[in-house]
Amino acid sequence: MLHPSYSDLIEVVNSGGMPGEEPVVQSRYSIVMATAKRARQLIATKMLLYKKPLSIAIDDLYKQRVKIVAEGDIEKSEDSADDKNIADEGQ
Fold it and tell me: Which Pfam families match (predicted)?
């Protein structure tokens, strides 16, 4: 069993949005694509990882160390250089 569950992870990722906004992640497919993209980013760093990249990516999303942004919002989010962003390519 996956911990956290898909529904828990989607709920946490969508909790950062403003009330009335469309949720960033609307399906399991979107959350899987976002975690896979984050795992590829971790692999590309060529750093020594203490866990498997996918496990780290799930933890990063669940603990809100990174945030998923829509492709159109990337330009807006680049203004805040402290945040790590994952562009959500498909919903």
Answer: RNA_pol_Rpb6
